[in-house]
Amino acid sequence: MIEVVVVPKKTAAEDICVFELARPDGAALPPFSAGAHIDVHLSNGIIRQYSLCNHPDESHRYEIGVLKDPASRGGSLAMHQQISEGDRIQISEPRNHFPLAHEARRSLLFAGGIGVTPILCMAERLAHAGAEFEMHYCTRSPVRTAFIERIQASAFANQVQFHFDDGDAAQKLDAARLLATPTPGTHVYVCGPGGFMEHVLNTAQAQNWPAEQVHREYFAAAPVDHSSDGSFEIKLSSTGQVFEIPADKTVIEVLEEHDIEIPFSCESGVCGTCLTRIIEGEPDHRDYFLTESERAMNDQFTPCCSRAKTPRLVLDI
Ligand code: FES
């Protein structure tokens, strides 16, 4: 854990705040690469992940952007309402599940709303390295577009196209055209709300982009329909204990009730913190973290949200 101080907190667009975080003594922070995120530990016990959006060569600060989400489960509201300039907060070291592919000859970056944070960091990095890239940034309107001035004033401004929902048809994102031809060496990166991600990812898939050239990061899980959830059992391989997981509880919740702790953070299958090995049984994957090939192996799952297709899972705990 690292203690940082908020220096400062600024409004970056309607409902979006940017927090600049530095060590209280001004010492260097651990290095990070484009696409990395940190965990922010809030006083209400909630841990949330936020992508770093400053230039990865900077070591004196981290910058994160936070959207006040009306469907917030406590994280974004606490960041907006309870954290002020000068406050000290605890964060993790940066981790990166959404890195740039070093072998890319060209990068196509797609950002939707607050999903711009890791994408902007990537654009900064690619521009600095003189790499070929194009960024498409979709938002509802200019007033809801964080970092618009920073991007317009940047050296890579002419490589960025803005697409506003309330703008005319000619400027709308045309993913089918942009992704018309899968090109060897071109890598696609997507971050944004569920519907936006689905649109870009489905378009890429329909136009036969190889999966290894398409990279994604979900920052929030889509609402899940739990109406058909059933119960199942888990068995801990170390002790042989068996627990019933009822339809309305997660594996983590049941284990916590029995003082068995699995580290967790987002509680929605986004961050991968709770990843647990499976020794027997088939999971019902509900996460956004594992790749399709990792899921198909069925040897690990995210107990914060995933369930079981078989009556019992034996876990490596
Ligand atoms: Fe984030 Fe489970 S806690 S994936």
Key traits:
317 residues; alpha/beta; Elongation Factor Tu (Ef-tu), domain 3; 3 domains; six-stranded antiparallel β-sheet; five-stranded parallel β-sheet; binds FE2/S2 (inorganic) cluster
In brief:
By secondary structure, the protein is of the alpha/beta class. The protein contains 7 helices and 18 strands. FE2/S2 (inorganic) cluster (FES) binds next to loops.
What does this molecule look like?
Helix content is 18%, strand content 29%. With 317 residues, the protein is an alpha/beta fold. It folds into three domains: 2-91, Translation factors (Elongation Factor Tu (Ef-tu), domain 3, Beta Barrel), CATH 2.40.30; 106-217, Rossmann fold, CATH 3.40.50; 232-315, Ubiquitin-like (UB roll) (Roll), CATH 3.10.20.30. The strands form four sheets. A six-stranded antiparallel sheet has the order 4-3-6-1-2-5, with helices on one face. The protein has a five-stranded parallel sheet with strand order 9-8-7-10-11, sandwiched between helices. Strand 1 (2-13) and strand 2 (16-22) form a beta hairpin. The longest helix is centred in the middle third of the chain and has 14 residues, at 116-129. It starts with a strand and ends with a strand. The chain binds FE2/S2 (inorganic) cluster (FES). The site of FE2/S2 (inorganic) cluster has 14 residues, from loops.
Strand arrangement within the widest β-sheet reads 4-3-6-1-2-5
Strand coverage percent: 25-35%
CATH topology term of the largest domain: Rossmann fold
Gross morphology: globular
CATH level 1 name of the largest domain: Alpha Beta
Number of strands: 18
Largest sheet: 6 strands, antiparallel
SS summary, helix count? 7
Number of domains: 3
Overall SS class = alpha/beta
Architecture per CATH nomenclature, i.e. the level-2 architecture of the largest domain: 3-Layer(aba) Sandwich
Ligands = FE2/S2 (inorganic) cluster
The value of Rg in angstroms is 20 Å
Q: What's the CATH superfamily of the largest domain, by name?
A: Nucleotide-binding domain of ferredoxin-NADP reductase (FNR) module
Low-confidence residue ranges: none
Cα end-to-end separation:
25 Å
